[in-house]
Write a structure and sequence with these properties.
By secondary structure, the chain is of the alpha+beta class. 29% of the residues lie in helices and 29% in strands. It is built from six helices and 16 strands. The chain starts with a helix and ends with a helix.
Length: 277
């Protein structure tokens, strides 16, 4: 049988011909698909990742755009000794290779310092206070000495020339000034100021301005997030009496202004003893 008749006149030839045609179409489609994938994925085309660390986001975007890459921020942290807003880590790492049109993931240093609570370091030794401050990311800028019978115990904490109190939230990395006792003996006696009728923030400033500290704090009704509404209705020692510089004034707070008119026998006794001496 002639080959020409085989392809045209036999069932076997017809089937085989269609199988070969179908196979050819599959091969052509597969080859075309591979070419398309190579084109889309830039097969064999690798780019070297530059070192973006230390740059800001805007600089990184410009650098990567020239290479056909782009930036994607995945996290923000705060590192004290790094420039704020700078890139501190990147994925993939510098000098590794990727294909074009891929993201480079970055971690930036926060533009705002984290706030930390000032620890309770009043009446602890300077060395202990220094260690406690370092544990929360703070440091000691300077030490000032004041009259006190207790040597090297912290009397007051200052930041930017102003008194700050334990619990106050200040920027991490801040350096505070510690006022500590010089151990020279009993401090000079001073007149106790009146703290009645004012809130705790103002009382702390007023007491410190007169060389005293606010000591125990007692509320007639426990506060529930409304501490700012409380005022001092009683203090001990009483206003007008004398106390060694650096001493503590205990205060009692209320939201009832009528309590400002209350008279306490213990306070009258303090004033009588003061007049006697």
């Amino acid at each position: 049988m002639e080959l020409k008749k085989f392809w045209k006149e036999t069932i076997g030839g017809f089937v085989l011909k269609n199988v070969l045609i179908a196979s050819g179409i599959v091969v052509v489609l597969a080859w075309g698909a591979l070419l398309g994938v190579d084109f889309y994925t830039h097969h064999g085309e690798l780019l070297v990742i530059p070192d973006l660390r230390g740059s800001n986001i805007e600089e990184a975007e410009q650098i990567l755009a020239k290479k056909g890459l782009y930036v994607q921020v995945i996290d923000s942290v705060y590192v004290r000794n790094k420039k704020q807003g700078a890139i501190i880590e990147q994925i993939p790492s510098p000098n590794s290779t990727v294909k074009s049109n891929r993201p480079v993931y970055i971690i930036i240093n926060s533009r705002k310092a984290r706030q930390v609570a000032l620890p309770e370091i009043n009446e602890v030794s300077y060395r202990q206070a220094d260690a406690m401050l370092q544990s929360v990311g703070l440091s000691v800028a300077n030490v000032e000495y004041a009259s006190s019978e207790f040597k090297d115990l912290v009397i007051e904490i200052k930041l930017y020339g102003r008194t700050v109190f334990p619990g106050t939230r200040i920027p991490e990395g801040s350096a505070v000034v510690l006022v500590v006792g010089n151990g020279s003996g009993t401090a000079e006696s001073k007149v106790v100021p009146s703290l009645k009728g004012i809130g705790m923030d103002e009382a702390n400033l007023k007491a410190n301005g007169a060389s005293f500290q606010v000591g125990a704090v007692e509320y007639d009704v426990p506060p529930s997030g409304n501490e700012a509404r409380y005022i001092i209705y009683r203090q001990h020692p009483a206003a007008g009496s004398t106390l060694s510089a650096g001493g503590k004034i205990d205060v009692y707070l209320t939201t009832d202004k009528a309590r400002l008119n209350e008279v306490f026998e213990e306070d009258k006794k303090d004033q009588t003893e003061e007049q006697f001496f």
